[in-house]
Amino acid sequence: TDSSMVALAEGCPELTNINLCGCRDVTDVGLAALASGCLGLSGIHIGNCYNFTEVGLSALAEGCPGLTNINLVGCSVTDAGVATLAEGLPGLKNINLSSCDNVTDVGLLALAKGCPGLTNVDLSCCCNVADTGLGALAKGCPGLTSIDLAFCGNLTDAWLRALAGGCPSLANIKLANCRGVTDLGLVALAKGCIFLESIVLD
């Protein structure tokens, strides 16, 4: 609960990582408390928490500028929330937005602009992202090494070509149930991403 977050913030100022997955009673108030008391926070998992908004995310971005890892799987986060994180956390390395249905290309454009050092992105089951946002991510985050796009139905070969041209260090990619991907896209990927170690297609 929020009261627990207040207690942690007051009693554990050296906290660097916290996993709150499924803690549905944590709200913006709790996140703001963490942000004000645990300034060295570098990683937070708030997946499947539904009672916070971009207000709480803004507090985290402002209070914990050293955050490099954030997991928002299954949350109701919007493009506005993603933009808030992107603007406040330029050093972000890993972000999990799996099953965040409210995230669209607008959010990805913000990430591409604000977080050029991203290396690991999970967008699996994000049904509202498409080539435009993904293309911006490929161009803006050239150091990407891992990306999960399983069940992203709007993905086509055009984005794979952009990825192949923009992210030469890519090592892992998941494309399960991406029905818009054809042999042409995979050929482009093979030519451009010579360090690729793992690809999942089913």
Quick recap:
The chain has helices at residues 2-11, 28-37, 54-63, 79-88, 105-114, 131-140, 157-166, 183-192; strands at 17-19, 43-45, 69-71, 94-96, 120-122, 146-148, 172-174, 198-200.
What would you say this structure looks like, in words?
This protein is an alpha/beta fold and 202 residues long. β5 (120-122), α6 and β6 (146-148) form a beta-alpha-beta unit. The protein has an 8-stranded parallel beta sheet, with no helix packed on it. It is 40% helix and 12% strand. It is elongated, with a radius of gyration of 17 Å. It has helices spanning 2-11, 28-37, 54-63, 79-88, 105-114, 131-140, 157-166, 183-192; strands at 17-19, 43-45, 69-71, 94-96, 120-122, 146-148, 172-174, 198-200. The mean pLDDT is 95. α3 (54-63) packs parallel to α4 and α7 runs parallel beside α8. The chain is built from 8 helices and 8 strands.
What would the keywords be for this entry?
about 200 residues, 8-stranded parallel β-sheet, 8 helices, alpha/beta
Mean pLDDT: 95
* Envelope shape: elongated
Taking strands numbered 1, 2, ... along the chain, how are they ordered across the largest sheet? 1-2-3-4-5-6-7-8
Q: What is the multimeric organization of the chains shown?
A: single chain
- What is the terminal separation in angstroms? 39 Å
Whole-angstrom Rg: 17 Å
Number of helices: 8
Task: State the share of residues found in helices, binned by percent.
Answer: 25-40%
Tell me the total number of β-strands.
8
Strand residue percentage: 5-15%
